[in-house]
Amino acid sequence: MLAHRRRLAEELESGQAHAITCRPSRIIEREEFEDEGSLWIFDGGDGRYLAICGQEYYETPRFPSPHFEVVMGARHRLVVGIRSHGLRVPSTLAVKGESQEQRGERP
Questions:
Q1: Which pLDDT value is given to residue 44?
Q2: Contact 66, 47 (CB under 8 A)
């Protein structure tokens, strides 16, 4: 965890960033299972998808939106934030999350 914080501090200190712009045609939400956090899959409509998951990405008044950017540091490509260019819209499809045991897999 300390190494992650050090890399994140380096990203912020550099003042340089890389952004992925997303204007999804569909927003797929997987219902949270246990404490995994939210999982969103954004369909770019052109065969490309962006998946975002974790406890940092719960719905807010501005996320998920029909136009947003994932901002990452230029050096380590760590996500430093999401910049929304619109208000939250509902997901197009919600799927139920399940554990590895429910799928018949070993953890």
A1: 95
A2: no
